[in-house]
Amino acid sequence: MTRFLRPILVLIGFMLLSTSTLAETPFPTVQKASDEGAKCIEPTHEMRRNHMNYILHERDETMHEGVRNEPGSLAACIDCHVEPNEQGVVVDHDNKDHFCNGCHQYASVQIDCFQCHADRPQEYIKRSSHTSSIKDQLQQTLAASDASSEGVNQ
Amino acid sequence: MSKIEYTSVEGKSLPYFALLGGLAFMMLLAIGSVFYMEHEGHHVTGMTNQIVWGMPHVFAIFLIVAASGALNVASIASVFRKKIYEPMARLSALLALALLTGGLVVLLLDLGRPDRLIIAMTYYNFKSIFAWNIILYTGFFGFVGAYLWTMMDHNVYKFKPYAGFSAFVWRLILTTGTGSIFGFLVARSAYDAALMAPMFIIMSFSFGLAIFLLVLMATYKWNNMELGDAVVNRLRNLLGVFVAAVLYFTAVYHVTNLYATQHHDVEKFLLLDGGIFTNVFWVGEILIGGIIPLALIYAPGVKNCRTTLGLICTMIIIGGFSKIYTILIAGQAYPLEIFPGYEVTSSFYDGVVNSYTPSLPEILLGLGGIAMTLFIVAFALKVLRFLPVSLADSVADPHSAK
Amino acid sequence: MKDSKTTEEMNHSRREFLSKTAVAGTITIAPGVLLHSTAQASGNTSTKASDEEVSNKNRWGMLIDTAKCADGCTGCVDACNEENGLVGHDRPATDTQYIRKVTLKEKSTGHELSLPLMCQHCETAPCADVCPTGASFVRADGIALVDKHICIGCRYCMMACPYKARSFVHENVENQKLTAPRGKGTVEACTMCVTRVDNGGIPACVEACTAEDHNAMIFGDLNNPNSDISVALKEHGGKQLRPDLKLNTGVRYQGL
Predict the structure, then answer these.
(1) Residue A141: what pLDDT?
(2) List of chains touching C (3+ CB pairs within 8 A)
(3) Is A127 in the C-facing interface, judged by CB distances under 8 Å?
(4) Which domains does chain B have, with CATH numbers?
């Protein structure tokens, strides 16, 4: 009997241990919206639970049907909720202080929105002197093509 | 008919574990390559916006095509009732499944977003040949799996003819589908040919049988089991027919292209001034993959020489890779004809022949697919009874007067 | 940078999101909206309400007059890169290009001309046909797009496109533009500046070409006989590229 009991007890002990460590993980501090007086499109408890449904539904309507007035667009969430922190820095989506990432890290739910979408409002995104290199390449190629026409017969 | 006895390999020897270990190591390298490519993005590979499909696709397509061909032996046994092939049907089906797995894994791991496998399986565009192929591959696993089951379980043995026939039909459709991936690409001069589908079927016969023969000979040799000349020479002659057929289809493909004036430029590129591609075509595909093996198969002096046959199979496999390389890469290297009658230059490589240098991670990924195939076969041979205890002439073909 | 200036001025208006009004895109396309109000139903810009779905009543297209396209001018390309936040990495073989300038020299006469080449927005698009997941699709109003949410990065569309109009994102992307989400491992191409169009604007390349005073590009509704593009096409005609493929492209060329 003890032969069976021992592993089970060990297992239960393990589970208790792991839940207790989980409980100690502090609940993320969710960043406040940019305008304290403003209201979100739905009450907080609804948004906490179902925000992904709003985003997903409107994602397809916008992408395929061209409907552009969606109140629950990801851009609208970011625009209101991603703000400079106390140090005046707007963190990016990998940071645990990012509005989305705080909870998502806590809940271990991986999202890949920000592999494509801007994770900060546009005014906080610093862009380097981009497009210059494409432009330079283009002009180089055009210059080269003027110098010697090297096109292959088509 | 005497009952065939099957066995599994012992799989406790040092060489066996060394083989598994070596294959596992190759798979590890492939996994490392995948993480590297997916983490950095595809710019670390040789693939570009011009050559969008590269080495992983050469390996993947080769393995997928060969998978359907590896089923040959089983099909001849159960669909065409050739008794001599019957004992090898299990191994044939196993190899087919393993090859398809290896090929699909390579194809999947080269995707820009392999993490979206679930999307590939839940969103279907039924007009896409690629989407059909996803269904065809899944179906292949189902049909060949069921076929294997009917072969190995006496309770369902009576369904074997049906399972064998379905698997046979399905594999023909599958290879038609694979060939059609290219055949329907109207945009590119080298691809747009309905002949692609039947040519891929015949290629599958040849590549699949070459791999099957190699695996068969290696397995029986390493396990000191008897493999008679009757069986081997049958397969050898069959291989000769397939190699000749591939050469024939290749010739027809190019000659029909040469007949149409609009395809003269692309043919000139493939056959004469394509540089590396022309070399791969003539040396790799035609000479090493076609003419030399064909000559050796029918050469009288080496008729029963297993080493020569191993060499022949290896050459056919090299030729197969060369063939898919020339179809796939050369077809992309040749510039798109957007403005007929004009010389074209731009910042986006318009009007120039695109170059492609495969990178190491790509090749490692492809080799990992082959390693995975062989690992599956080696492991399955140990856990289940796939191999006839003996394939000596007296067992395999008692009627052959010898 | 024009955009950041605009956004700073409009920093205040960000708050208005909460009251369910402006779409985020409005910030960047403010000039387009202006255009919208003065050009009602001219067929030159969209007049659909922002909550309205696009329909096949419109077919958006572009007409390019190669005679007016100046050799060496890259105004449209620069505007496109700026609009979509396309950043080069000094790797021309893998860097994304939505639109490119192509120089042509007629073999028989030696006549030279240059033109911009981008996604031709085919009605029966090969990319949409071959896409296994349906990520490549043509919108009801004729704009060909990639739904990057379901693109698995197989690149079959790039194999199928007769114009080589598509690019694969070969590296990580950060700091994307609001209206141009793009990321590693997916395929992308000219969107005909779909957000601008939906909000009653015109594509950035056309805008730039007009601003340069070259006027080589006209944008508009091919289904509306009164639109500038339809009038010009009726008067002078316009060619499709690879007409043999019968793709009914949305982009047409004059002077080829």
Answers:
(1) 53
(2) A, B
(3) yes
(4) 6-396 (1.20.1630.10)
